[in-house]
Amino acid sequence: VSWLFNPTRSEITSLDSGNIDDILNNADVALVNFYADWCRFSQMLHPIFEEASNVIKEEYPDKNQVVFARVDCDQHSDIAQRYRISKYPTLKLFRNGMMMKREYRGQRSVTAIADYIRQQKSNPIREVQDLEEISSLDRSRRNIVGYFEQKDSDNYRTFERVANILHDDCVFLSAFGAISKAERFSGDNVIYKPPGENAPDMVYLGSLTNFDLIYAWTQDKCVPLVREITFENGEELTEEGLPFLILFHMKDDLESLEKFQQEVARQLISEKGTINFLHADCDKFRHPLLHIQKTPADCPVIAIDSFRHMYVFPDFTDLSVPGKLKQFVLDLHSGKLHREFHHGPDPTDVAPGQPIQDLASSPPESSFQKLAPSEHRYTLLREKDEL
Question: A Pfam family for this UniProt protein (predicted)?
Answer without folding.
Answer: Thioredoxin
